[in-house]
Amino acid sequence: MTLIDTVPGFSATLLALGAELGVEFPVAEMTARLGPPLDHLLAAHLAEDAVGPAGDRFRELYPEHAVAQVPVLPGARQAISAVRGQRGRVVVVTGKFPANAQRHVDHLALDIDHLEGWVWGIGKADALRREGASVYVGDHVHDVEGALAAGALSVSVLTGGCTREELVAAGTHVVLDSLEEFPAWLDEHLLTTRLAALEADLKERGSVLVAYSGGADSALLLAAAVRALGAERVAAATGYSDSLPQVERDPARAFAESLGVPVMTPRTHEMDREGYRANSGDRCFFCKAELLDVLGPLAAERGLAHVATGTNADDAVAGFRPGIRAAAERGAITPLRDAGLTKAQVREASRRWGLPTWDKPAAACLSSRVAYGVEVTPHRLARVERAEAAVRALLGRHGVPVRDLRVRDLGDRASVEVDAALLEGALRPDGELTTALLDDVRRAGFAQAGLDPRGFRSGSMNDALRS
Fold first, then answer.
1. What is the average per-residue pLDDT within 18-35?
2. Where are any strands of DSSP class E within 213-281?
3. Which residue range forms the structural domain that includes residue 430?
């Protein structure tokens, strides 16, 4: 990745070297297209036997004359952050002397994973392949050569002296005016690439039964399956049980039917599983095991080759997810995760496809509201559902929009989590609306109720596990 503007430092070092050698280097000409090895640049101005020693002296002078003068290119830090945001690695592969290149990285505090120096042109390919680089950003035609030789996507920026026409002629795939354009390009590139991978994966599967909750992930998966396979080779199945809120059921069915997909609503009996009722940290394992044990035979009966879940790439790195393990043990496939699609990308793709679920708030099952160690029962789930419905209705009557809402069952009391912004406005701790809200929660079946001052936090019940 091209990150720094080396012209000022290179120029200053050339001037210092020229003063020592009594040579007046054409600095502007020599720095107009930086990238080739130093010896190549010096060879036109020194005797052949003087090039090597002059290069060694240049590298000795470089730290004093160049490091402090060289700035990062506009957009470089944002480009690194964009790669980090996609859980990528940042590798610098450069023709510069490695120690001096590292001095630049350290001086500018650039967050990179690996630096490889003294490689040039096609020679960069070995390092790029070894580091698993899929995209190489450069500013010289020889950077394009290295990327192509490594089988990486070549992205060129117009900050190194090579023209757009030269870079295109060299075979680059993308030309950007500067690194400032890179984050948006990367977002689009990854979304497009991952959606294509999802389509290819689904086509290869032949037919699928989607474990469909009606949330953003499984809705996108269902829509993608229909696009790739046709509705006749896709079905949706929503497990009905006490843990699925009533309010989620009709919209989920309506969306699936709008795609022309048959919807099955088998009854699941996770409550019959002791591990589920006990509600220790692995409760989700027993829930997902029950669901897949029910859906597997249904898929077989309909001649559908696979059961697919809406697990996305973020879920796979989110830490403690026993439900994912249960599904994997039962052979479920995870096309969104396998394509690398993150939650943000699921929402963006859904928005582009016009899916009504694109901005739907996360709607975890009702059991996720019950504190670990407190037994899950139909009574507890029902009172949580009543309480949440009452709170939404109350806030709606008062014109207070709420996106995320959870009533947590802590055993002896309820803790209400709402969007944090509401805690400084309509739901101040001593406000009349807050008092009415907590009264409604108690009427739903809780002896005590309080408003969590930290606001809504997805997965807040996991705090107890971490502690």
1. 88
2. 234-237, 263-264
3. 367-466
Per-residue pLDDT, 245 = 85
Is residue 127 helix, strand or coil? helix
Task: Identify the pLDDT of residue 36.
Answer: 78
Strands 91-93 and 114-116: parallel
In a domain, 266, yes or no: yes
Residue 35: what pLDDT?
75
Which one-letter DSSP state was computed for residue 360?
P
Which pTM does this prediction carry? 0.85
Measured distance CA(458)–CA(404) in Å, rounded: 9
- Specify the pLDDT at position 466: 56
The beta-carbon contacts of 270-276 under 8 Å, at least 24 apart in sequence, are 270/241, 270/243, 271/241, 271/242, 271/376, 271/377, 271/378, 276/367, 276/376
Strand partners for 208:
234, 306
Is 295 found in the same domain as 220? yes
Nearest to 4 by CA among 103, 59, 66, 74: 74
- CATH number for the domain spanning 447: value is 3.30.300.10
Dig out the tokens for 417 from the structure: 């989590």
Do both 344 and 382 map to the same domain?
no
Q: Contact 207/236 with Cβ under 8 angstroms? A: no
Give the span between the Cα atoms of 159 and 79, in whole angstroms.
Answer: 15
Cβ(270)–Cβ(276) below 8 Å: yes
Whose tokens are 């795939």? That residue is: 173
Across the range 457-464, mean pLDDT stands at 70
User: Residue 97: CA atoms inside 13 Å, Cβ hemisphere, count?
Assistant: 17
What integer pLDDT is reported at residue 457 of this predicted model?
A: 86
> And the tokens for 185?
């390009």
Domain boundary among 361, 387, 408: 361
Q: What is the pLDDT of residues 107-126, one digit of tens each?
A: 999 999 999 999 989 999 99
- Reduced to 3 states (helix: H, G, I; strand: E, B; else coil), residue 210 is strand
- Residue 115 bridge partners (DSSP): 92
- What is the tens place of the pLDDT at every residue in 181-213? 999 999 999 999 999 999 999 999 999 999 999
- What local confidence, expressed as pLDDT, does residue 41 receive? 87
DSSP state of 136: E
Tokens of 259: 């795609």
Contact 87, 74 (CB under 8 A): no
